[in-house]
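Re: that chain you flagged

S.,

Sorry for the slow reply, it's been a week of failed gels. I finally had a moment to sit down with the sequence you sent. For the record, here it is as I used it:
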Amino acid sequence: MTFTVLARHPQSGLLGAATASRSLAVGNAVPAVRAGVGAVASQAWTNRALRGLLLDATDAGADAQTAIDRIADWDSGAPLRQALLLPARGAGAAHTGTETTPWTGHLVLEDAIVAGNLLAGPGVLEAMRDALAPLSTLDTHAPDAAARFAGVLVGVLAAGEVAGGDVRGRQSAAVLVAGATEADGTVDLRVDDHADPLDDLARLVDLRAADLRGSVTAR
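Prediction finished late last night. Pasting the structure tokens below so you have them in one place:
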């Protein structure tokens, strides 16, 4: 019912999550980011509690695969869940339950994870993967680096939508970005109900970028 990207920039410590869906207020239910710890998403037949459980396990020292493997212990509905975990450091991991609605799947990459369910097909994830390329040239020293990172993630969602996205259509989207510490610039933006949520989310990211540039100028 949703497609999501988690990504990190290892050199700068930026972590982000972005998600889109034909469900109301997807940003309230699916993604979470904890500075210096990781990015996470819980979707399909969503269990919101998994986000905190996975991040807490990561913060306590578990690697991503170990944390993901605990979903079956935490949640009797694990076959209905799709969950992704990308720690600030180390390999990411994902779980796509056997009872999630097709087409469903995930790709775990070196510094990102893309995943979705109720999608047009695997080409959605492949397009999202390819759209991550701009992260390799991101200027992380810019005052609006967090917003630039968010812009790339929204572009990843847009690529997934062009490839077919959620077969039911579109309604909401969200993007979260945190720096290596809470003191770094952040992005926390949602479009809960809109005819073109990704376009409106991109507009909000541009506004946030201007805010971040302005905060540096004001100093």
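What I noticed first: The CA atoms of residues 77 and 160 lie 27 Å apart.

Talk soon,
D.
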